[in-house]
Amino acid sequence: MRLTIERIRTLVLIAGVLLVIALGAFLTVGRWRSPFNRRDLPKKLGVDIQQEANGFTHAEFHAGHALFRITASKVEQLKNSRYRLHSVTIEMYGSDGGGTDRIEGSEFEYDQQAGVAKATGPVEITLDRLPTADAAPGKKPQPHENQATRPKDQQPDRQIHVKTVGLTFNQNSGVATSANHVEFDLPQASGSAMSASYDSQGGKLVLAGSVELNTQRGPDPVKVKAQRAEFDRDAYTCALVAATAAYRHGDARAEEANIRFREDGSAEQLDATRGFVLTTAKGGKVAAPTGSMHFDKQSQPISGHLDGGIALDSDQSGRTLHGTAPSADLQFASGLLRRVHMERNVRFDSDEQTDGGGVSFRAHRVWTSPVADLEFREAGKGQVDLDSIHGIGGVEVTSESQRGSAPAARARMTADDMKGLFGENSALSSMTGVGHAMLEQTTETGTRQTSRGDRVEARFNQTRGTGSKLAPKTAATPNSAAQIDSATVIGNVVLTQQAATQPGGAVPPLLRATAQRADYEGAGQLLHLTGSPHVDDGGITLDAEKIDIARASGDALAHGSVKGTWFGSKASGLGAQGPAHVVADEAQLHQATNEATFRGNARLWQQANSVAAPLIVLDRNRQTLVARTTDPANPVKVVLVSTGGVSAAKGAKSGAPSVVRVRGGDLKYSDAERKAVLRGGVLRRVVAETADATTRADEVDLILLPAGNHAGAGSGTGQVDRMTAQGNVSIDSETRRGTGEKLEYSSERAEYVLTGTAANPPRMTDPTRGTVTGESLIFNSRDDSVNVEGGQHATTTETTAPKQP
Fold this sequence. Notes:
Blueprint: H1 12-26, H2 33-36, H3 41-51, E1 56-62, E2 65-72, E3 74-78, E4 82-92, E5 100-111, E6 116-119, E7 122-128, E8 159-165, E9 168-170, E10 175-178, E11 182-186, E12 189-193, E13 195-199, E14 204-217, E15 220-232, E16 237-247, E17 250-261, E18 267-280, E19 285-288, E20 290-295, E21 301-316, E22 319-333, E23 336-356, E24 359-380, E25 383-403, E26 409-422, E27 428-442, E28 448-460, E29 484-498, E30 510-521, E31 526-530, E32 534-536, E33 540-543, E34 546-550, E35 556-566, E36 580-590, E37 595-606, E38 609-619, E39 624-628, E40 636-643, E41 657-664, E42 666-670, E43 675-679, E44 686-689, E45 694-697, E46 699-704, E47 720-733, E48 736-746, E49 751-755, E50 763-766, E51 770-773, E52 776-780, E53 785-789
Antiparallel strand pairs: 1-2, 2-4, 3-4, 4-5, 5-6, 5-7, 6-9, 7-8, 8-11, 9-10, 10-13, 11-12, 12-14, 13-14, 14-15, 15-16, 16-17, 17-18, 18-19, 18-20, 19-21, 20-21, 21-22, 22-23, 23-24, 24-25, 25-26, 26-27, 27-28, 28-29, 29-30, 30-31, 30-32, 31-34, 32-33, 33-35, 34-35, 35-36, 36-37, 37-38, ...
């Protein structure tokens, strides 16, 4: 918005002040009333004419001071009590004898019976006032003193000259009129009118018909026009009808205006009714049914009030603005507008239309508030720019923007107290809301994001880089000033984000986050949460030192001391019941795939089951867990609860829970299959450790008990039911070592079954008993026995030896 409302001081005030002074002088405002309103003047003129036909001088004194002096070079007595005066000069003085006003004409005709005096030719009036400061102390100008004979240092600081033809004065009514063209000159202005009349008894001056005034405001010309001007001498007021003031930067209009003056002639107050309009050359406009202005002694505006429903409009640089309010108060400094206070349902609508790089952009913004204050700054050359807007009592700003044919993006910002700052060309640069502050945005894809906090700061049209894993990979396009480039939410931040539902798809989960601070980066479409940030997307919660959320996709990236919890009916983790907990250096939530990725010293546990790896990925749709490593020194580690497997010789109860520890290069767990598969990967081998044995193989599969199936008293869900190792299998149990191609372990039977191929049958080596081989070797950990099966007729060789304590 760029409204040069400061031009109000060049409004009808110019017409009122200068026209009234000029034409008031011409028609002898105040001063002329005394000499022309004397009913015995014709009688005096008649006596004098009879006494001096070829020369005339008459002076009137009061209390030793001259009131006026009339001189004429010749007097002629006409028929019917009429007289003709030639080369007439009438000089009028102030009450103290100072100052001189003169009326000069080549010929005056006076009708004694009708009481009418008329100038039959041109008339020129000169108003001359010596300033009090220029007069010598105690000195009083003498009646006979002529302006031309005064010392140069006592020449008047201003003169007003008025010219007309056919001036008529009726001594009975006290009205002087001129139906002819009137022209006047001031020290810094000139003007004209079609006619004028002055009621000397009532002190009313009326100017009618094409009243014009031409003056300067610095180097710029100003033209003031009015259909009618009426001046009340006693009340020090001037009423104007259909007044306009045109200048280089715009114009001002008022259907009816009334100006009140001080005794020194300076304007004090202007009241406009029946419509007040101010426009600028750059498309600014302010209008109101009624308005008033107050001026200082230099006739500079100091304050004003507009009422009855004001409208502010601006159209420049592809940006339009329309503001409304029932009333407004104006404040000025050095004649320039500085502040506008608006009350009761304030509203501003702005629209922007641009076309850059073949892509059109449009934006619409609306500001509403109970109260608003507009601050202006000086822009040079007598103009001002909008500097800020401040609203209280509950402010709402909404916007809608669209690039090309893409879907529209929407935003809404609310707060108890809000302030907007404007930059070059009055373009909005920032907006700050305090108290119950809220920023709501809807992207082109339909994702809706709402941020609440104690304070919201939004900045517009600033170029920034992305530099984030979540930033879009598409080429950046220039932002419009109508789009939020960056924003900050401070104090008790609550964020919610809801992705749009795709046709035929399920409703995406609602993401909710809390923090002490949130910073929005428009270029990268990211929201950075700091200050104990916490994110909950309905299935997983994240806590970290910092969390980034992508506005478009809803993805979240957590940094530093990450803690996550997978909960709800779909929480599987590693097959146990209850929430699964995760810690890591970094985590990322993918809304589209519903995956959660944890990197850097990641560890997940669910009840007694756990997995640790450099990378852990949870797929909540498929109910799977994937863990990987690329560093042999940092393998994937899995710990699962099992039943049995503890030798009775060790004093433990048969079937008591034990632990299976597995190391490998990668892990994939499926909750639907209740199966965990570990492969060697960069480690080449998988190592599985139970209480009884250590197994090495290319791959190890762990089958968990079905959900809800508890193997023994005191045991929980997620327990290992079977373990299968395949590929170059070796098993070590105390002093025994077995090799083969496949090993199957049953936690229920606490039994290991080792098999091989025909070319490479399984082998069991014992330092005491030698080597045993067969189609399969069965090792029972409870009694430390080994069964050997071979051939079509299974032959069992049982070797039993008590374990050393």
